[in-house]
Design brief:
The protein is an alpha+beta fold and about 180 residues long. It has a single domain (about 1-180), classed as Gcn5-related N-acetyltransferase (GNAT) (Aminopeptidase), CATH 3.40.630.30. It has five helices and six strands, in the order E-E-H-H-E-E-E-H-E-H-H. It has a six-stranded mixed beta sheet. Strand 3 (about 75-80) and strand 4 form a beta hairpin. Helix 1 (about 35-50) packs across helix 2. The chain is globular and about 60 Å long.
């Protein structure tokens, strides 16, 4: 998908010579050639989420897992004027109560210098369209409870917190122990 929208507009009162620049951007399916870009965004996201050492994925992991023909996981890249500015990774889930697939957003990230230009919202709209086209019953994601800018952004587009559900995770040794028991 290719979009055109006004770029950042200088306030006319503060800048009498204010101008408007047309910014073009595109959201496209990621390919194996994007593995390095995706890993770079993942590392930036980990730094933002205060977990810089948590990323153990390699570019090879991204290629072999994200682009495996049997996976339901997909990624999209948002570019502006030919430069990658953000990405999203999502997969299909299933709701037994609805009897339909859902779309689960694993990661959405826009580089800090590119925020406030509509790229995050465009990525969400793109994924919402995919969910609707696939007849999904829901579109879900998680957000860290301290990430107020993201929470405000999500609430502004009509998303609502699912506070009655508590996420659980089993990983590392605990996962191995359960599997062996």
């Amino acid at each position: 998908m290719r979009f055109e929208r006004p770029g950042q507009v200088k306030a006319a009162a503060a800048h009498p010579g204010a101008w408007r620049k047309k910014m073009t951007f595109e959201i496209r399916e990621a390919t194996t050639d994007d593995a390095g870009i995706i890993l770079g965004f993942i590392r930036e996201l980990a730094i933002y989420e205060k977990e810089p050492d948590a990323v153990v994925a390699t570019e090879e992991d991204i290629v072999t897992r994200l682009f495996n023909p049997d996976t339901t996981t997909r990624a999209v890249i948002c570019t502006s004027e030919g430069r990658p500015v953000g990405f999203a990774v999502y997969f299909l889930s299933f709701s037994t109560w609805l009897g339909r697939d859902g779309l689960f957003l694993e990661d959405l990230y826009v580089s800090p210098a590119e925020r406030g230009k509509g790229f995050g919202k465009a990525l969400l709209k793109h994924l919402a369209k995919i969910a609707v086209d696939k007849n999904c019953g829901r579109f879900e994601w998680n957000v860290l409870d301290w990430n107020e800018p993201a929470i405000r952004f999500y609430e502004a587009i009509g998303a609502r917190a699912q506070s009655e559900w508590v996420g659980y995770r089993l990983d590392g040794q605990a996962l191995l122990d359960l599997a062996k028991s």
